[in-house]
Amino acid sequence: MTESIPTPGGGVDMTTADFLSRVPDTRALNLRVIDIEDSGTATRAVRFASDDLDGFRYAPGQDLMVLVDTNGGRIIRRRYTIRRFDAAANVIELDMITDSAGPGGRWARGLQIGDTVEGIGPRGKITLSDRAAWHLFLGDDVAVPAFAAMIEALPAGAQAVLVAEVAAAGDQVKIDPVVPVDVRAEWLHRDGAAPGDSDALVAAARDVALPDGPGHAYVFGEAAVVAAVRDVLAARGLAPEQISAKAYWGKGRANASHGEPLKDGRAA
């Protein structure tokens, strides 16, 4: 069977080789699960080892696209942020939310040590701004691994403000910057409410105190929530180039086969 990756517009599928040729900074990775750690309400940290990771390079905030399922003969892939990478051991960690009913959630819940996984990466254009005096991170559970990886990679003396909505207090994540960083974190707990409601994050975006000087905001999560939060930040005076917004999922609809919400709202 020829493996294919649906294009982001829902058009003609591309073979893996064609995809790699179009995105030359990525590589195919044959990964093996070596460790799994479950924490919080529905978070699973999965560590993979592979000789294919020798010489691997990525920017904090980038992700891997992994093969998770097949549906009617088509390849279904999902994207997970690179949480950590040990270049000396060729071990990479992806942190996943496992409470979705879709193929990604089923795949993550079913992983076992020793399983082999096909990946492509690194993916993603949004990384840390090198011109910002401070960094604001706003998003939900699915965004937390990216936020943690980015904050931990900030340079010494940087200022970071994190506002993250998670299911419960047990889903708060410890963030350990490599060098001294001023991190102010606010955790919003749903406490039984369904994810994807914009009220809490929109209110936080409206009220959060912003440091002095030019900053940059990173807004990741549910598509409609991301759009609403971005509008609030724009109304507060942040220019378009100061806001990096990324929809990771869409409430009430499955992501497309390439792992992201389609821009027109249709599921693949």
Task: Give an overview of the whole structure.
The chain is an alpha/beta fold and 268 residues long. The two termini are 20 Å apart. Helix 4 packs parallel to helix 5 (223-235). It is built from 5 helices and 13 strands. The chain has helices spanning 16-22, 103-110, 144-152, 199-207, 223-235, and strands at 4-5, 14-15, 27-39, 43-49, 63-71, 74-86, 91-97, 116-123, 134-140, 159-166, 182-189, 215-222, 243-249. It has 2 domains: 4-123, Elongation Factor Tu (Ef-tu), domain 3 (Beta Barrel), CATH 2.40.30.10; 134-249, Rossmann fold. The longest helix has 13 residues, at 223-235. The strands form 3 sheets. Strands 3-4-7-6-5-8 form a 6-stranded antiparallel β-barrel. Strands 11-10-9-12-13 form a 5-stranded parallel beta sheet, with helices on both faces. The model is unreliable at 1-12, 255-259 and 264-268 (pLDDT under 50). Strand 1 (4-5) and strand 2 form a beta hairpin. It is 17% helix and 37% strand. The relative contact order is 0.16.
Structure summary:
This protein is 17% helix and 37% strand. By secondary structure, it is an alpha/beta fold. The protein has two domains: 4-123, Beta Barrel (Elongation Factor Tu (Ef-tu), domain 3), CATH 2.40.30; 134-249, Rossmann fold, CATH 3.40.50.80.
Keyword list:
alpha/beta; 268 residues; 13 strands; Elongation Factor Tu (Ef-tu), domain 3; 17% helix; 5 helices; six-stranded antiparallel beta barrel; 2 domains; Rossmann fold
